Amino acid sequence: MIHLRGVFKQFDGKRKVTALEGVNLSIESGEMVSIIGPSGSGKSTLLNLIGGLDRPTEGEIEIDGSLLAKLDDDGLTRVRRDKIGFIFQFFNLLPTLTCLENVSLPLHLRGWPRKKIEERAKELLSLVQLGARMDHLPDELSGGERQRVAIARALSVYPPILLADEPTGNLDTSTGVEILRLIRDLHERLGATVLIVTHDLAVADSCRRTIHIRDGHVFQDVRR
CA torsion, points 207, 155, 94, 108, in degrees to nearest 10? Predict the structure, then answer.
């Protein structure tokens, strides 16, 4: 499903910074994997490259049979749109749109019929237990509820890959446990491949596989 071969990523500024150095990694369909490491270790860079949000300086990334380096910007956009759902630490919801409208937005961008969009968005909000909050704006919700909306939006096209960058990092402990339980439940129900970047050892330990990143290298790959 996801394959990285000799991936390097450098950022140019006043001095060059190597965020990833020669990463080789394979993640199979249906796995739930945590990526853990200290700040600056390269784990979020790794997630961004897998998600097609950035391109590597060197090396190959293959997502569900597509070599990202061979895709132009439109091709990358299609991969992100059709194959990958993103969950971010700070939710990234549009504040002037209701829950229903936030979840519906990716489907409007795909040109779905309005009735089908509304049905899917309602289905997903019910799936994340927000059926009674569909008409609420983000600032009328708790942090945990906002993250549930973000998860519903990420699942709007039932993508085969779900990427989560510190999904519990902006939440209190009990709400974080609840969100993690929801992600695990959706993983089991939908069979998506899930990658979670986290600082939280409890989140990492909840996955059957944990990849440890340090100084731009994969230095440990633990399977349980």
Answer: 160
CA distance 10 to 168: 28
Q: What is the DSSP letter of 64?
A: T
Q: pLDDT tens, 158-196?
A: 889 999 988 888 778 888 888 888 888 888 888 889 999
Query: How would you classify the pairing of strands 32-36 and 17-27?
Result: unpaired
Q: Give domain 2-223's CATH superfamily.
A: P-loop containing nucleotide triphosphate hydrolases (3.40.50.300)
Interstrand relation of 58-63 and 84-88 (parallel, antiparallel or unpaired):
unpaired
133-142, long-range: CB < 8 A, 24+ apart: 133/99, 134/98, 134/99, 134/100, 135/98, 135/99, 135/100, 136/98, 136/99, 137/95, 137/96, 137/97, 137/98, 137/99, 138/91, 138/93, 138/94, 138/95, 138/97, 138/99, 138/102, 139/95, 141/99, 142/175
What is the DSSP track for 140-180? GS-HHHHHHHHHHHHTTT--SEEEEESTTTTS-HHHHHHHH
Instruction: Please say whether the beta carbons of 135 and 58 come within 8 A.
Output: no
Tell me the per-residue pLDDT of 44-99, one tens digit each, with 9 for 90 and over. 899 999 999 899 999 999 998 889 988 888 888 888 888 898 888 777 899 999 99
HSE-up (13 A, CA, CB side) for residue 51: 23
Q: pTM of the predicted model, to two decimals?
A: 0.86
Residue 97 and residue 174 in contact, taking contact as beta carbons nearer than 8 Å: no
